[in-house]
Specification:
Mean pLDDT: 86
Shape: elongated
Low-confidence stretches: 2-12, 19-31
GO molecular function: enzyme inhibitor activity
Organism: Perilla frutescens var. hirtella
Signal peptide: 1-33
GO cellular component, one term: extracellular region
Order of helices and strands: HHHHHHH
Radius of gyration: 22 Å
Number of helices: 7
Distance between the termini: 71 Å
Domain Pectinesterase inhibitor: 32-184
């Protein structure tokens, strides 16, 4: 005859009152992180016309570890989001260039964008290093260059009437994520001054 286990392992490790306290602490931490994201995004959106509250909030909430992050951590997460965007956009452009249907002008714009986003990858990596070292002026220059790259990429398509950019959303996201990161740096710099 087999011996049956009468209860779960967790009840042997922690008495019910301890488990309840742990659940309350975890819930409090999640709520605190949500409040920090919400309040910070509200502040950023209120002070910068390039930042949309909902975009800021949903971008940060979707990032791993954002639920546990303090302000400095959210700043780093915002830069990581730029890195993911830039890397993914470069990959997407590479895929688009494989398609032979593009007219010569659009193909040239895509090549230009590929170069811009290729250059943005080391810039965002340097921005992460600068941010961690609290060299916010350097990080600001590096993030601004990424912002400029997304704008330059998009503007290239607009130079010719009738040409539609296949990268509008990606460029817009890179620009908006950069605006968020720059605003985080400004707040962190102000608080540490």
């Amino acid at each position: 005859m087999r011996k049956q286990h009468s209860s779960s392992c967790s009840s042997h490790l922690f008495p019910p009152s301890s488990m309840m306290m742990m659940m309350i602490i975890i819930l409090f931490q999640v709520c605190s992180a949500q409040n920090l994201i919400n309040s910070t995004c509200k502040t950023l959106a209120g002070s910068n016309p390039n930042i949309d509250y909902n975009f800021c909030r949903t971008s940060l909430q979707a990032a791993p570890a954002s639920q546990c992050a303090a302000l400095q951590g959210l700043g780093m997460i915002s830069i990581r989001l730029i890195r993911y965007n830039v890397t993914d956009t470069r990959c997407s452009i590479k895929q688009l260039l494989r398609n032979k249907r593009w007219d010569p002008y659009t193909r040239q714009c895509l090549n230009d964008c590929f170069d811009l986003f290729s250059d943005a990858i080391p810039s965002v990596k340097e921005a992460m290093k600068s941010f961690n070292a609290k060299r916010f002026d350097d990080a600001n220059v590096q993030i601004t260059s990424i912002m400029d790259a997304s704008t330059t990429c998009e503007d290239g398509f607009k130079d010719r009437t009738g040409v539609v950019s296949p990268l509008t959303k990606r460029n817009d996201d890179a620009f908006r994520l950069s605006a968020i990161a720059l605003s985080f740096m400004r707040i962190i710099q102000t608080r540490s001054a």
